[in-house]
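Data card: per-record layout.
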Amino acid sequence: MILLFVDDHKDILEIYKAEMEYELKETECHYAISGEEALKICEEHAITHVFTDAKMPGIDGIELTREVMKRWPDKKVYMVSGYEGKYTDDELKEAGVLKFFQKPIDFDSFIDFIKALS
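The structure for this 118-residue chain is written out next.
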């Protein structure tokens, strides 16, 4: 399992990194500050699961999900956002989002979810 976390806020990425290094020491994780950087990382690494913010400048989370699913349909994509209601459940499913996590994240539940993926 190789994870990618995408968020345009550097402090959020630092929180992900700290949590993953503590809770999932053996899991390979990558971090991207933009949708564009996320696509580059997906090209360079065998990412299996993408966790993306919804609202980002440039390529936003839904656009990123659509592009990832078009280019790598075997990848699993999840959305993490503080903007509940930005997209309908149907829009998320159509794009390929498997699950939506509301910010602020309950990291205990989030880590349990990720551990169950392996």
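Known properties of this structure: The helical segments are 10-23, 35-44, 61-71, 89-95, 107-117. The mean pLDDT is 94.

See the next section for split statistics.
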